[in-house]
Amino acid sequence: MTGKKLTIKEFAAQLEVSTATVSRAFSTRGRISDVTREMIITKAAELGYHANIHASNLSRRGSSTIALFYPAISNNEPDYFITELLLGINETLHHTGKMLQIHPFYNGSNMAFFRDYILSGVFSGIIIVAGTNGSKELLSLAKTANLPYIVIGHMSTESSRTVVFDNEGGAYQAGKYLRQTGREHPVYVSGHLDRRKKKGLRSGLGALAEKLILFDGGSSLADGKRALRTIMQQQPQTDAILCANDVLALGILKAAHELKIAIPEQLAVIGFDNIKMSGYSHPALSTVSLNLFRAGEIAVKQLIKLIDSTEQLRPIKIESELIIRESA
Amino acid sequence: MTGKKLTIKEFAAQLEVSTATVSRAFSTRGRISDVTREMIITKAAELGYHANIHASNLSRRGSSTIALFYPAISNNEPDYFITELLLGINETLHHTGKMLQIHPFYNGSNMAFFRDYILSGVFSGIIIVAGTNGSKELLSLAKTANLPYIVIGHMSTESSRTVVFDNEGGAYQAGKYLRQTGREHPVYVSGHLDRRKKKGLRSGLGALAEKLILFDGGSSLADGKRALRTIMQQQPQTDAILCANDVLALGILKAAHELKIAIPEQLAVIGFDNIKMSGYSHPALSTVSLNLFRAGEIAVKQLIKLIDSTEQLRPIKIESELIIRESA
DNA sequence: TTGAAAGCGTTACCAT
DNA sequence: ATGGTAACGCTTTCAA
To answer: Domain tally for chain A?
Structure first.
């Protein structure tokens, strides 16, 4: 349609100014008179001039796109945890004029590819969601590339540039609640990032902790459903479950209906994350709320600080809170 | 850490070959002997050479990132429709070596910004999710920029480069089912992209269509909840609801529990989209299945065709299917 | 405040 | 099959 694109040279020629002046009109750094700037901007809109971003990136040696890397859960189920995190990230980025690329990563396979990408300098910064070995690889990549990064979640190799959830505190509250409401046979269904959750749960459970049974869950609705069936077979006396995430818990709720297990009378279930859906299940899911939106928001704010200044960062902990609804 | 980055010139000098040869080693087009290519690749890994992507983009006049633009529903609720679409897109892209940028858009505000971006040539192609005026603007932008694009969903101004769902057929089946199961007071709760759904529903409803009541819904869980309360107040005789999307329907299910309306005995509810969660609600949601994953997959395949060849595209229609579970 | 011109790091054409 | 080199379109000194 438009055919060729207008270059800065052609554009400058038409306005009878130099390319340098045009460039300055769109930059904040360059000194230029208000009147010429304004006239250039007007003319640009009129004639349809837009700086070629590749040339600009090359010249400035840097882009303004940031990337989010997160472990993909696949089995073809969407990851609501990431979805809500993304919401906060997008909302915040939206005010900054930066672009977001998203990169779910699987097991090992495409790491080499990301490697090239990160090292090639496309990103001005990256956000890494912790949880798998891939996350660690990415982190060390960012470090060697000297690329600004923020990690969301706990990572043993990183302490300052993180946004972490208070998983331990949250799980503690859940354990305590379960104990105080008279539950006697607790099970923990695991997902990702479990260490602190287990620890917190144990101490919240107090004396009950020695009866705690750990069960390997997963992170999909189907996983949750499967988990409860197995649990009830192997440990029929179970009367309380804490899940590593809400999606799992929602799957468990479903299985409970099918197995005609009364919730919360026979079985208390508490999730983790407080995704939007958990307030709408039946029964409504009790859960440890993580404020995912806020975590996303803070992660980008921290990252931008890192990019724009040399200021030292301190790790940020997002409070968690036990929300009791109907399932426990 | 690494300090300076190795440029092609320096790298080539160390290997005692020309930059042209190095460039060819990483390209598929250039003719080069297998042995030199291999040695260059090895050395690159060893010395840590990575082509600067900005320079490469500039030189080739094109990038390999594609963008997804979709109307953001905001009210701080994640959009599960997009989430599942995204899953298919990512999965497919993952095999192609292209990068994905995602851009939710709101009302009007940031269009100018996208404009600049699209026109500046960062993208090798874009996928637009239909549904709002923003989508239309974006489409015409892509057209004037002569940029390969695919639109997901119906758009009046576009006919060939689309991936559409058979909304009409799906709604028809839902209407027919509702009629055949003896419902007498149907209401349709609207969201986005409603025209064909309404049309299909009407014809499926047959004679019952004249009793159809339209209700303005939305797209969040909260919207759904609110909708049912209002509906039952204004039209207490209502005994069947078709929702424009599952999220809305899930909200309605929740409200039904609270209002002690028996589902499906007193009220049949059918959703639209078949997001993963709808198989796990209680009662499980009957819905018109849209195969979002597949739509995402096809959209990127079509887009890549468009980018790589001049072949004419034909619009693709994704079949829809009524899935009866428990809610109707 | 403005202009001229030297990069920025690749790719691709033209030679050899 | 390989090398030399002119683009690619912008930003940023340095001078005026």
So the answer is: 3
Q: Are strands B321-323 and B286-289 parallel, antiparallel or unpaired?
A: antiparallel
Which ranges of chain B have pLDDT less than 50?
1-3
In a domain, A199, yes or no: yes
> H or E stretch including A104?
strand A99-105
A:B CB pairs within 8 Å: 161
B268 within 8 A of B262, measured Cβ to Cβ: no
Same structural domain for residues B196 and B225? yes
Q: Count CB atoms within 10 A of the CB of residue B114.
A: 18
Prior bond to A71 cis, omega within 30? no
Block residue for tokens 């689309």: B162
The boundaries of the domain holding residue A266 are 167-289
Same domain, B282 and B301: no
Give CA A247 to chain center in angstroms.
15
The pTM for the full model equals 0.87
Give me the pLDDT at residue B8, please: 92
Integer angstrom CA distances of residue A280 from A69, A149, A167, B249, B257? 29, 35, 23, 11, 10
Q: What is the mean pLDDT of residues A284-297?
A: 95
Query: Is the domain of A173 the same as that of A285?
Result: yes
The tally of CA atoms less than 13 A away on the side-chain side of residue B89 is 30
For residue B84, give the nearest of A78, A251, A277 by CB distance: A78
Nucleotide nearest to B33 (CA to C1'): D1
* Residue B2 falls inside a structural domain: no
DSSP-derived letter for residue B7 is P
